[in-house]
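Hi, here's the filled form for the chain we discussed.

Project: internal
Contact: R.S.
Residues: 171
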Amino acid sequence: MAGSSEARSRLTAFGNQLIEVHIWLREQLEDLRDDVDDYFDGKGLPSRDLRAHCLSFCSALTRHHTGEDRGAFPVIADEHPELRKVISELKTDHNRIDWILGNLEKLLGNLPETPDPATAANVRAELEGLSAIMETHFIYEEKKLISVLNSMNVPGWRADKPDFLLTEDDE
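And the returned structure, exactly as it came back:
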């Protein structure tokens, strides 16, 4: 059965795969937000496990965006020069997201053993900012690039799934 699933994913258009990755990343962020809420409510993961969860999510999101910046976007820009401005805007979002991820990692890296309201407010504010920019970024990217990605046939991406299309199931 796994072979059938793998074959199906290789035949799925790249834009559809991108939507699946965005859904997965949204779910991962929601899980992190739930774990943060549980921690600050005193009923969740120990701080070291919360940091590990954050690093895992941050790494996945960074891998996705780096894969787009280095792999997908150059190919799209070459084949569709009219989308270069869109790609530039998406890269700017990636930089903003990286900055927020850095802030979040620092905050979670310095969590007190006993949750406190000030730290909770700071962490939740970073998560809200991250959530907002991710959502607008994903919607814009999907609106502008899905049909282009669905029309593309890049044999290298089919042979070896690129980083921007990976989820934890692919690792």
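Let me know if anything looks off before we file it.
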